[in-house]
Every structure is written in C-alpha cells, then in structure tokens.
C-alpha cells in the first residue's frame, strides 16, 4: 500500500470514529445508553485502526524511510486529532445524559 492510500485510511477511520461518536451522543440523548456505549466501542475500534496506520508511518520514519510531508498528511493528522477529541467529549456527554436521566428518575 502506498503512502497516499495509508493517509486516506487515516482519514477514513478517523471520520468513521467521529461519526460513530456523534451517533453515540444522539443515542444517549434519547436515553438509549446501551446503544450509546456500543457505538462508543465501535468508535474506539475505528480509532484503533487509524492509530495502527499512523503508528506504522511513524515507525517507518524511525527506521529511516523517508515519509514526505504533504498537505494531505497534515489533513489526515488533523482529522485524527479532531476525532480523538470528539470521541472523548462524546464519552463525557453520554455520562452527562446518564446522570441527568438518573436525576429525573429520582
């Protein structure tokens, strides 16, 4: 697989993670916490896939293989960082919705 394909994989997996995390927030908003947690787990899998590709590229560079910086690579890194942040915040939103739901039941 060439560098551009690897970069596109990072973008794809990161986008999937972010989208799935957003779906998890929506599920929690509807008090469907089992589904929200399942979706966060799916987001974690997508994030792991993105990290795997990123780690491969980093290790390649450490081995002395030239990884050319490009706008596309920077874009992929940006997607990954945003997806990580969004997924972390989604977990906080889910916890908040769960707490709100518990207070309503009390």
UniProtKB/TrEMBL annotation:
Modified sites of kind Phosphohistidine: 75
Full protein name: PTS system cellobiose-specific IIA component
InterPro entries: PTS_IIA_lac/cel (IPR003188), PTS_IIA_lac/cel_sf (IPR036542)
Organism: Sporosarcina psychrophila (Bacillus psychrophilus)
UniProt KW keywords: Phosphotransferase system, Sugar transport, Transferase, Transport
């Amino acid at each position: 697989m060439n560098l551009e394909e690897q970069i596109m994989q990072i973008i794809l997996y990161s986008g999937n993670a972010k989208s799935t995390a957003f779906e998890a927030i929506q599920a929690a908003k509807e008090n469907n916490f089992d589904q929200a947690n399942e979706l966060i787990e799916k987001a974690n899998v997508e994030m792991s896939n993105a990290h795997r590709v990123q780690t491969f590229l980093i290790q390649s560079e450490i081995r002395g293989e030239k990884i050319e910086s490009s706008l596309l690579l920077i874009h992929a890194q940006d997607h990954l960082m945003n997806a990580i942040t969004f997924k972390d915040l989604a977990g906080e939103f889910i916890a908040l919705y769960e707490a709100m739901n518990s207070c309503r039941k009390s």
